Amino acid sequence: MFHIVQPGDCVWNIAKKRLQDRSGQTPNDAEIAQETNRIVQLNKLDEPPRHRDLIYPGEKLVLE
After folding, report:
1. CA distance 48 to 64
2. How many whole angstroms separate alpha carbon 31 and alpha carbon 36?
3. Half-sphere exposure of 17 toward its Cβ, with a 13 Å CA cutoff?
4. pLDDT tens digits, residue range 5-53?
5. Backbone phi and psi for residue 17, each to the nearest 5 degrees, phi listed first
6. Distance separating alpha carbons of residues 59 and 34, to the nearest angstrom
7. pTM
8. Which of 7, 12, 32, 33 has a CA positioned 20 to 30 A from the CA of residue 23?
9. d(C-alpha 10, C-alpha 39), whole Å
10. Rounded to an integer, what distance in angstroms lies between the CA atom of residue 20 and that of residue 36?
């Protein structure tokens, strides 16, 4: 499963929506942070020269 980044997207909100869609409930901040870290590591967003908070419209993020 993947997500195509749209203008205004951020990894935190992508993680939050993914968790909400899976459980039907609003996740807490700790759960969102854990999912955010998983997405960052899966997509190697924290490896130089990238910065983990920078994603770009049209970019394809792997979620699983």
Report:
1. 22
2. 9
3. 9
4. 999 999 999 999 999 999 999 999 999 999 999 999 999 998 888 888 8
5. -65, -40
6. 21
7. 0.91
8. 7
9. 11
10. 13
Query: Are the CB atoms for 5 and 61 separated by under 8 Å?
Result: yes
Distance of CA 60 to the CA centre of its chain: 11
State which amino acid sits at residue 24.
G
Contact partners, residue 10, CB within 8 Å, separation at least 6: 53, 55
Q: What stretches of 1-64 show up as alpha helix (H) in DSSP?
A: 11-23, 29-42
Per the CB < 8 A criterion, the answer to whether 43 and 55 are in contact is: no
